[in-house]
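Journal club prep — side note

Before the paper discussion, L.F. wants everyone to see what a predicted structure for a comparable chain looks like in token form. Sequence:
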Amino acid sequence: MMRSRRQIEFLVLAVFLLCSWYLFDTHFNVAERGPADPIVDEKSWRYEATEAEEKQEMFEQENANSGAKEKMSSTSTTSQHINTSTQSTAAATPTPSLPDRVVVMAKLPTDETDWVHTDLPDWQAAIYEIDTETPHNVSTLDPLTNSTLHTLRNKGMEANAYLAYIVQNYDNLPSTIAFIHPHKDGYPIAWHTDNQEHSNVVSLQSLNINFIQSNGYANLRCVNDPGCPHEVMPFRDPPEEHRTIEAAMPDAWRDLFNNTDVPHILATPCCAQFAVSSEQVRKRSLDEYQKYYTWLMETPLKDETSGRVFEYLWHILFGQEPV
């Protein structure tokens, strides 16, 4: 009976110990895990993590694309700004204009005239080619009807080119026009250019433009001899045979100016190199200059005589007194 009771007590004790162990173990695990920590399924966690990563990648890609667009937009805006700035600058920068002065001359095939472009860069140049192979033959390039730097014929010396330029450019003349010979400098070829170097470059570089504009005309030679005080006397008595210009002047004057008021003395420093203002040129009509040019091309006078008629008339054409 005692044994049976002890066996029952032992069994009860064993059950008690087992229950106690179970309760203790469950309480300990709950306490260790914490009441706020959910039990997360591993598969679910991996899905959520992958989704988050994909969202992050999409976000970063959108940012990258946005940045690229912004960069492109910025580049485009900058480029547009540069282009606009360049266009604005181009629009604001005036086109360089031609100098308001011109050198006019007649050139034989043997004349070297490159010096005009190299030594007078602030002057335009109108250099007329003279055909010496067919003197007196009429060219198809008539300055009365063509804007060409070729003379109609080899006639009338430098007056040919001077008048051709005025006829061709009457309505579009620079404010200052210098009519000169084709040689640059040196003695004896340029003896009539009276600065120390006998240089046309020096003459034009030192030219008083203000005086030309106020007075209208200036001879580029200052030394009076030859030419003054009475080089041409149309009614010299007795006449001197070698002075062909004096004999030709009365008829030439009548034909050119349509009157007989021929001065008894015509005098000016020699050699037909002078400067004139466009305003002074236009004090005579285009028809008058065309008439002078036609007379020069058609006169039966010898070449050197017809040219020298104009040599002693330029100053009168441009508003100066006969002497």
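L.F.'s comment for the group: Residues 101-317 form one domain. Keep this in mind when we get to the figures.
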